[in-house]
Predict the structure of histidine kinase.
Amino acid sequence: MLAEVLIFVPSIARYRADFLLTRLKQAQIAALTQLAADDTVSPELEAELLKNAEVYNVVLRRDEVRQLVLSSPVPGEIHESFDLRMAGPWELIRDAFATLLDPENRIVRVIGSPVQEAGTLIEVTMETRPLRTAMVEYGLRILILSALISVVTAFLLFLAVRRLLVMPIRRVVRHMQDYAEAPEDARRVITPSADVEELRMAEEALQSMQTQLTGALRQKERLAQLGGAVAKISHDLRNILTTAQLFADRIEGSADPVVARSAPKLVGSISRAVSLCEATLAFGKAEEPPPQLRRLNLAQLAGEVAEGEGLSSETAITCLLDLPPGMMIRADGEQFYRVLSNLVRNARQAIEATGQAGTIEISAGEDEAEWWIRVGDTGPGLPAKAREHLFSAFQGGARKGGTGLGLAIAAELVRGHGGRLELVRSDAEGTEFAIHLPKGTSEISA
């Protein structure tokens, strides 16, 4: 619409000026005919000349003499005079719209310069009705033509928008719908092909998201399958361990002092294995029970973990326990044993991978708000890739062949106690983890 206005306004003003100049030319021809006849033109011919020129009279100035060359009765007073010799663009536009907006038939005087140097001035008197009628017809033609141009432009714009925007967006929507039907199928990931840069960036972002989601779904599917297999194995293993537990109970009554000393430890290990199998089955059914919090002697529990991992002062890898003898914590004994066991086992495996001797240290302390337990080693430290997904299952493994489950399980069990497991340091001098357990406000059960 703005383009139409910018075209229509100067066009209608130019048309009015050309219309008036044409009337002056016609009037000049009629006046020259009268002058050539040397005043012998009959009144009938004079009236015909004025009628053809569509004016009432013609005044021509030649040789500094102003002469009324042709004349006829004027039906009314002259309403306004227009001098085309001095008119600028804004005056022409103003006068054009004044003519269009005035429906009355006015008598106006028009002054201009004769063509071919036939004089210094020509002046005519005429009606405004023919001028206004011609301007309205011309304006309608301009508007119709502009409307046609606008329709064609709009159609071309529609085709361009459809080609450059609508069709690529529909393609993206179809890809999203197709991908939603089977997000695990990598063949359904979108391939960027848009010509518009912004749409191509959106397609690339969608491709990246779909690729990551497909990988995650595949991993989830493998985890689900693995979980089913583990649940089946744990079920059968629990039955086997239950039988072994019955035999271990009988060994406790043996007269052999060595067997009698070893039997409680064997029974405790088998009991932990049975509990682990039961917990695995419960986890497979998403029914893992919350930790059963009770008072635990941390030094005694850490000693059992070190002994269970085969660590002593006589082995190449020694375990130092820097724990207050009477320090009691509130935790689930079986779950916290698994936490410490996973951390100590990871540390032992890291040191063993170097082929050199090393040390694992378990220390602890407390304040008014929490207990903290630190497990450190003198191993080679964790690689950068392992630290990125340290507590994520199947992603945080630092050892070749490792699954990355140990730290993930430990972190989850600590969170179940309301605490947190964090990596304190990992460099060439070793690795250290810290467990923070809140004391809370409730009393520790006996």
Summary: The radius of gyration is 52 Å. Residues 2-145 form one domain. DSSP finds ten helices and twelve strands in the chain.
